[in-house]
């Protein structure tokens, strides 16, 4: 009996943690902020490797020197967050540099490649996000969720089945007397 209570408390606590984590992830998405995992140390210590940076869309005209921006590199796929060193309004381009880098980036970033500005970051969560983006990570996540659900609901279901079976056995014994 006590084991079932402990199991129930643990499963409820785990479900609460999962719901809270989902809210932390989904809340910013509902505000239109996009999570980006930090893969390199070019912006340390501001954005450490393994962090998640939440980025909100920004107009190029609102960006000023000294602010961090997130943008696509020339390949159109690779995403970078670096600090704006200067803005060239005539060429409509940003000149950027990583906080940990000693020199500016090699090429200017056209306004058209701007994604937005970082709003906040959550250290270490990027490692988890990157892992969950793999097939193995998704399989493990689904397995954990199934186990949590089973741990939360299976003991009650088994107790009901056990009580029903006991009741039926008792009725059968009563009829045979």
Verbal overview:
The chain is an alpha+beta fold and 177 residues long. It has 2 domains: 62 residues; 91 residues, Ribbon (Umud Fragment, subunit A). A 7-stranded antiparallel beta sheet has the order 1-2-7-3-4-5-6, with helices on one face. Helix 1 packs antiparallel against helix 3. The longest helix has 42 residues. It is elongated. It starts with a helix and ends with a helix. The model has no long low-confidence stretch (mean pLDDT 86).
How far do the termini sit from each other? 32 Å
Share of helical residues: 40-55%
Mean pLDDT value: 86
Q: Would you tell me which CATH topology of the largest domain applies?
A: Umud Fragment, subunit A
Helix/strand class: alpha+beta
Extract low-pLDDT stretches. Answer: none
Outline of the structure:
The chain is of the alpha+beta class. 45% of the residues lie in helices and 23% in strands.
